[in-house]
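Why does residue order matter? Because the sequence determines the fold. Keep that principle in mind as you read this record.
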Amino acid sequence: MTVTCWTTHGRNVCLRHRLWIGNGIANADEQVDISRLPDTLRAQRHHRNLVARHGRRWVRNAYPDARKMYFAWLQQSADPFDLLDTARRILTDGTGKLPSPDLTLTMVFHPQVVTLAGLLAGREWERRAVATGHVTRLVEQITVRNILLGYVPKDRKDPLIQWVEQHSSTHKFVAFHRSPRIYDAFFPRETIPPPRQPDEADAETRWSPFHPYYRC
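Structure:
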């Protein structure tokens, strides 16, 4: 009998056994020993800290966007040092097989994806963008935080620029309605929140500094 386990987006690594159990894994035999990827192990703790700092809703919504964005960047770059082949040779699953190239990418660059998710989930870049009218600081942080060294968007089709435009547009629409219920439509929760007192604020509902759209 097959048993399907549901888990949250942040449980990609079993720290006790040093196994990759997240994206790309369908059964226990496919779990990969990542004891030789210490940065990926540390990223699991970093991910949990981001949830505590920014709120599960915001990290959960930023994480898949960060993953999609980062792999789009990777497709535009070469691998001059044969990093993927080297990584595959030191990683094996429970049956002794080498992981697929896609799974290898996911595990090797997980630290960068988690860091990028934390950057996108934070509010500081939003405040700076509203105050200055541009996203220079957000772009600079991609290199400062060792997400992608020397990153400079080439044009408006860059994944980050497209994400910023979509993100700001969505938040402007949400800000116009000013109803917490609209958050569940645009930013669905990953888990059921605990009961709150009538006068207690919802930690996962926050208003963006982006100015709302107005009716003509």
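Residues 25 and 47 are 19 Å apart (CA to CA).
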